[in-house]
Input
Amino acid sequence: MKSLDPVFAFISEFFNSQAISATTAFSVRFAIEELFTNLVKYNKNGKSDISVGLSVQGKNLVVQIKDIEEHPFDPTKAPDPDIHAPLENRRPGGLGIFLVKKMIDKVEYHHSENMSTITLVHSLEK
Amino acid sequence: MLKITIDEQGTVHLQGRLDASQTDEAAKMLTKVTTSATVDFKNLEYISSAGLGVLIAAQKRLKQSGHGLTLANLNNHIRDVFRFARFDLIFKIE
Output
């Protein structure tokens, strides 16, 4: 998953330029990695590059992740894992998206004309 | 980047970032742990769910022989992630 390196470099540069707090930076970085790796893993036929856009809008940090997906997959509808299960039944799968939903204020999914767009909105006052 | 070392006492030290690009190295190193051990997070800045998966796999393997990992010195961000994932139910966290 070496394709993550330029993504993290881009995110870090943006966070530094906007003086984003360490708490927000951790949560947003975590969310972008989870969603980005999910798209790479589950959209193997995707021939397009995944785009990640960051912007500050008022008191929020807004992230948009876009990818061409023939078959829409809405991560916000993924079932939550059983986090109370005993160790032998714990599976890492599904944990990432669950944690994103816990850590980020708003996660939205939109699919139109073969394009999936995941939008994250997170308060900068954290 | 991730740096992972095991000292003479058997404590595993993590340094840097344990993200999806570093899981192979972390998993390989953790296979060397065959008894109960502490994993020191003092210098770990970041962990992703891929990193959590590596820890779960190691804990499952160790529990089969009655051993387990103790996770120590987590920063506040990583502690939050572990709290949301209820890792306190499957690891000893100091």
Notes: The interface with chain B takes residues 1-2, 4-5, 8, 22-23, 26-27, 29-30, 33-34, 37, 83-84, 86-88, 90-92, 95-96, 98-99, 102-103 of chain A (CB under 8 Å). The first strand of chain A starts at residue 51 and ends at 57. Helices of chain A lie at 4-17, 22-42, 95-103.
